[in-house]
Amino acid sequence: MDEYLSENPHPDIIKIDVEGAEGEVLRGLEENLHENIKIYVEIHTGRMEEFGDEPWDLVQLLDKSGFDIHVADHRQNTEKFVPVSHQGSLPSGNYLLKAV
């Protein structure tokens, strides 16, 4: 992704839904992560382990790049995003992460 973005205009929003490979995609964007991009990531916690990642790995990567991170748990029948606390916990299963 970094190579593609170095040759093309940067998007304002990136939506990632890759069934567990979220960490690989975000690491591939690492050189182009900045606060001018809004990132939405569909988290698939059960599949992330297959790629050697955990949800907190994504939070740390995005936090290091200066993003504010929020989550919305689909199972709660709400699309309300709540801030991620570094002392708190993340939902299990599938949920939506927003980095702005």
Automatic annotation (TrEMBL):
Gene3D superfamilies documented for this protein: Vaccinia Virus protein VP39
SUPFAM superfamilies to which the protein is assigned, alphabetical: S-adenosyl-L-methionine-dependent methyltransferases (SSF53335)
InterPro entries found in the cross-reference section: FkbM_mtfrase, SAM-dependent_MTases_sf
Pfam families in alphabetical order: Methyltransf_21
Domain Methyltransferase FkbM: 3-68
NCBIfam families (alphabetical): fkbM_fam (TIGR01444)
UniProt-recorded name of the protein: Methyltransferase FkbM domain-containing protein
Organism, as annotated: Halorubrum distributum JCM 9100
